[in-house]
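Q: What changes when zinc ion is included in the input?
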Amino acid sequence: MVRELHEEYGIIVSRGTCYNARSWARKMLQGSLNEHYHMLPCYVAELQKVNMNSTFQLEVEHDIHNSLARFNRLYICLESLARGFLEGCRPVIGLDGCFLKTKLKGQLLSAVGRDGNNQMFPIAWVVVEGENQASWTWFISLLMTDLGIVDGYGWTIISDQQKGLENAVAGLLPNAEQRNCARHIYANWRKKRHSSDILRNLFWKAVKTFISNKPKCEVIDNNMSECFNSFILPSRSKPTIDMLEYIRTIRRALEDNKHNCRACCVIHAGHLKFEVSTHGEGFVVNLRAQHCTCRYWAIAGIPCPHSIACIHFIWAGPANYVNEWLRSKRYINAALRKPSGMGLAPVQKERFD
Ligand SMILES: [Zn+2]
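A: The predicted holo structure follows.
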């Protein structure tokens, strides 16, 4: 921002002034962070109204001195996602947490599944005060109810050894298989000077021998949860409701990408392969393989701006290129097309603005 102001307008402005100006602009545009917390009960009521069988649990603490309610935690599990996960994904759940980047802090914990194509499938998420055994226990208990999990038998939980998570899983899901992210374990192991190629090969061979073959899932890292965290990265510095809306609506990702594709220049190389250049960078898109070298499409299941430019080139619709799992009727129909029924119904934000 400092550089842009200097280059565009020839003005020298300090970082502090820029920071304040940006905070003011955000406050004017999105309402203050505190106001969003005040609006949460109305937001949850509105979500509940249009997503009848979904679970939204808002937990507040009452101050005994002034009878004010203070936000504590919020759990969101949309019925369409829970149902889609149970019907179409393997019984493998990745659990992870990430920090919220606003002044009020807090953390977002998420449960993410994998579809048959190894793509990310968000199941449920919570905003909590921080990552600890109590918050993980609260989250997992609610998740177990929504997914009908009893003691974890037949389920696999993948995590990164977060604070309190291991104990929470052991207490609530004693019969689940717990896989710790092998990439993190290897990174720690490597720090202890076990970095030779022979040891590295032995490590990865050994890891595979310890995992169960029941869930038919060979995954030994928590990449899906990390993908989810990076997918929602732009929203983590937004006020709470804006962030929750960002996560709730996959449609926004597709719409954003459609908007951003305007800067892409497409050259058709035959057989549905394209060269795309934008902002000085080049990418190769293969529509038949549903792949772009930026890898966003493969990871998120939603066409990236480069791919959308190519889809427009052949006069097709980007929604038809969203990954099958993300647009099957059990998951995304409602988000992309139907305004009712399956759970991702539009919410009338003006009600609580
Ligand atoms: Zn791309």
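Observations recorded in class: The mean pLDDT is 79.
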